[in-house]
User: Which sequence fits this backbone?
């Protein structure tokens, strides 16, 4: 018997032009632990949000216990016995555990604290999930908060429990007990769906595994009959490599050196663990890895204002780990962020303004204390023609541009700065094939001019076609470094899922 | 001169009277803060309500049969109309917030400026008066002696002999304390204010909570305004609220947005006011120093409270 059947589910986001779900069909058996794997942007969360009534599908059908249902909101889903624990908990800080669990289920107008505490205690004993009902949410560790969220669903008598990246927030010590909890719930007849991209724990905990990639259903495997390699292949996929003409690199002196840096999150979780590597002039160093393995923190530590707990970052020999972004830029860094709409550009300003963003203080753009309007205008015009930016004039708004042309504006601005160190993060995300080629060529040209390039990407073919050396991130540390002939799909894929022995 | 020569029973009574509009404002502000809809328009609500109270009382008193026969009833009806008027202001706020997601801070700045000028404008255009307006036909809200309580020595004097709005402010305080502490609706209000997503995810209507908080704060402001123009005196002056709404907002914060705390804080501000008046009469301290005292006190206390809150938060984080 199937608890849930997805039939031809499709969902398109016009604002970001992403087909988040593309004709997805598969089913989940009653009483199993079913894992859904895939990289960020594979469409796992979208599918689950559709199931929980938070998003509407464009087309398709959902069957619960073999019957078609309409899920317009979370209450509909709860009424059908579907509960969801979100990655970001939805809890009220000043409430106690009991208040949080019972919120919205109170039957009588007046509250009896005593019977509420009793009800929660009973529930926690029933499911062997010990918790103190009178503890304040504000004071609990993440693992406990997750337990509160699970109990919140259980008291609503859900039969199907969705968990969105439940282990992403847990410390390694909390993961084991959490997986036990899942098995325990399964024994009590609940159906569990959990989203993860951590393949090992998926294999350990689940009965079956469904892999998604770029909004598409790739396949469902019995956990006992598959292995980490097969799953990694399914997740990453074998795509036709975009060929980029590239001369062998001629590396010069070291520009960026990262030595044993450690970063911890505000909740004390270790995000970066002793990461060390260096990037030389005239080479592209690719950081590969499934997203969420510390790349973000690494980039923020180097290019942004994330404080490292320990370790040294040098740009051209200068220690920069405690410097401001402005000072880092002065030291020769340029940065092309992943989020061009919010971070890379001010889309509500003109192309002219954006062509200068962040470099307003440079003397050569000034005439006395004011900006040299004429010079800047000429410069922006030249950028538009050099980088083939279509869709807007110098005074036009950047928001009018397509994603590819927006990216060109960012590249033009950062490249014109003639950096020693160029950091590019997911440079072609969401771009069409033509723009991808342009951006890749531009990055290689920068390298050939003698810039040290640090490329961060979760796209394996991008890493493969551009990088001269590759470092692979896995759970906050550098799982391995590859160069020359070692750079191939298999080696990277193995390091990506934490198999250190993958490289002979 | 000992302290009881300064703080007489009269001073305490006047403290309670002075505190009433501040308490009403504070209860409404606290409720709104709890529900996550910052209402900084209360001061303007009060000024407009004070005007509506005296005008509606005047109209009922002079142009309706019932008002001509029962002058006191006219005043009561005026108060009732004003409470409804305040509720309407709150309703408009809630509608604009809910339907158009209007920024309430900006709306409140506009409300406060509008309240000040529109009352003066109508006063001039219709009643041909500038500055203040009153009419001898209007009767003040009567004082009510509470049975039993009024016969208790000292305490009777302290708790009895006020007009109905003073008692209403106490009743509302108690009702709100019970609502917030003992009922599920209080819990829903807190949930909406602190984590909207959490509330939505369990099926609580954010819209209902916001409407409730804003409308009730409007009703309370209406009562506060009526208290000033027909409860305390029988006249309207320009900027009648004179910052009492803002003091209410401060009292709400001072009381950690709990109705009980807001009530106590409002009472404290009223006491400071009364004490300042008293000191002007019985001491030689320059009056401008005394007049500024309640406000200095407010700043000092708010600083202490926010420092304490900050320290608690740090402590919790460290733990």
Assistant:
């Amino acid at each position: 018997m199937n608890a849930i059947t997805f039939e031809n589910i499709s969902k398109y986001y016009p604002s970001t032009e992403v087909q988040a779900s593309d004709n997805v069909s598969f089913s989940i058996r009653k009483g199993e632990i079913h894992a859904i794997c895939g990289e960020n942007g594979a469409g796992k969360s979208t599918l689950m949000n559709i199931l929980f009534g938070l998003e509407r599908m464009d087309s398709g059908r959902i069957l619960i216990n073999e019957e078609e249902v309409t899920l317009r909101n979370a209450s509909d889903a709860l009424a059908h016995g579907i509960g969801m624990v979100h990655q970001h908990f939805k809890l009220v800080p000043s409430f106690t555990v009991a208040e949080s669990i019972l919120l919205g289920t109170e039957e009588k107008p007046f509250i009896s604290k005593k019977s509420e505490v009793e009800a929660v205690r009973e529930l926690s004993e029933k499911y062997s999930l010990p918790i103190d009902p009178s503890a304040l949410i504000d004071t609990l560790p993440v693992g406990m908060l997750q337990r509160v969220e699970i109990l919140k669903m259980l008291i609503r008598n859900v039969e199907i429990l969705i968990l969105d990246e439940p282990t992403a927030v847990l410390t390694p010590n909390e993961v084991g007990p959490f997986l036990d909890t899942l098995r325990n719930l399964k024994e009590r007849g609940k159906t569990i769906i959990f989203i993860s991209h951590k393949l090992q724990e998926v294999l350990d905990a689940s009965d079956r595994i469904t892999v998604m990639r770029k909004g598409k259903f790739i396949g469902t495997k019995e956990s006992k009959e598959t292995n980490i390699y097969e799953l990694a292949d399914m997740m990453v996929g074998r795509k036709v490599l975009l060929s980029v003409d590239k001369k062998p690199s001629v590396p010069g002196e070291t520009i960026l050196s990262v030595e044993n840096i450690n970063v911890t999150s505000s909740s004390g979780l270790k995000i970066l663990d002793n990461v060390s590597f260096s990037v030389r002039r005239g080479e592209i160093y690719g950081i590969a890895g499934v997203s969420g393995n510390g790349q973000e923190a690494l980039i923020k530590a180097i290019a942004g204002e994330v404080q490292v707990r320990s370790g040294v970052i040098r740009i051209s020999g200068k220690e920069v780990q405690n410097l401001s972004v402005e000072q880092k830029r002065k030291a020769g860094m340029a940065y092309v962020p992943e989020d061009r709409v919010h971070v890379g550009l001010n889309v509500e300003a003109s192309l002219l303004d954006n062509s200068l963003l962040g470099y307003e203080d440079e003397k050569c753009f000034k005439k006395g204390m004011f900006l040299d309007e004429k010079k800047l205008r000429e410069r922006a015009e030249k950028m538009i023609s050099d980088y083939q930016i279509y869709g807007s004039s110098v005074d036009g708004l950047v928001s009018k541009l397509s994603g590819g042309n927006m990216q060109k504006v960012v590249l033009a601005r950062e490249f014109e700065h003639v950096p020693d160190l160029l950091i590019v993060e997911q440079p072609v995300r969401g771009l069409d094939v033509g723009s991808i080629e342009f951006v890749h060529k531009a990055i290689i040209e920068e390298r050939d001019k003698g810039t040290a390039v640090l490329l961060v990407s979760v796209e394996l073919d991008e890493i493969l076609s551009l990088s001269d050396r590759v470092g692979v991130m896995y759970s906050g540390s550098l799982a391995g470094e590859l160069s020359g002939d070692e750079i191939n799909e298999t080696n990277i894929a193995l390091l990506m899922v934490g198999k250190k022995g993958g490289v002979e | 001169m000992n302290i009881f020569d300064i703080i007489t029973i009269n001073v305490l009574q006047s403290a309670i009277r002075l505190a009433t509009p501040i308490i009403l404002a504070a209860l409404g502000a606290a409720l709104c803060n709890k529900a996550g809809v910052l209402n900084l328009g209360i001061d303007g609500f009060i000024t407009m309500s004070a005007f509506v109270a005296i005008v509606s009382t005047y109209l009922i008193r002079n142009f309706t049969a019932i008002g001509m026969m029962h002058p006191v009833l006219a005043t009561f009806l005026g108060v009732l109309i004003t409470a409804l008027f305040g509720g309407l202001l709150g309703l408009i706020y809630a509608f604009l917030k809910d339907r158009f997601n209007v920024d309430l801070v900006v709306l409140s700045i506009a409300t406060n400026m509008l309240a000040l000028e529109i009352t003066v404008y109508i006063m001039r255009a219709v009643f041909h008066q500038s500055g203040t307006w009153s009419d001898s036909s209007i009767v003040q809200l009567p004082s009510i002696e509470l049975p039993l309580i009024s016969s208790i020595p000292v305490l009777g004097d302290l708790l009895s002999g006020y007009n109905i709005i003073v008692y209403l402010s106490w009743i509302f305080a108690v009702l709100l304390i019970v609502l917030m502490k003992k009922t599920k609706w209080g819990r829903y209000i807190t949930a909406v204010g602190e984590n909207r997503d959490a509330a939505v995810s369990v099926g609580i209507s954010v819209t209902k909570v916001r409407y409730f908080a804003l409308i009730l704060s409007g009703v309370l402001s209406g009562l506060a305004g009526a208290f000033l123009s027909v409860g305390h005196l029988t006249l309207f002056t320009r900027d009648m609220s004179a910052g009492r709404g803002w003091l209410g907002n401060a009292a709400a914060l001072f009381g950690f947005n709990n109705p009980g705390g807001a009530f106590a804080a409002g009472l404290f501000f009223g006491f400071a006011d009364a004490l300042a008046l008293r000191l002007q009469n019985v001491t030689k301290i320059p009056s401008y120093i005394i007049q500024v005292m309640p406000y200095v006190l407010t700043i000092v206390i708010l600083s202490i409270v926010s420092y304490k809150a900050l320290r608690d938060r740090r402590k919790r984080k460290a733990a």
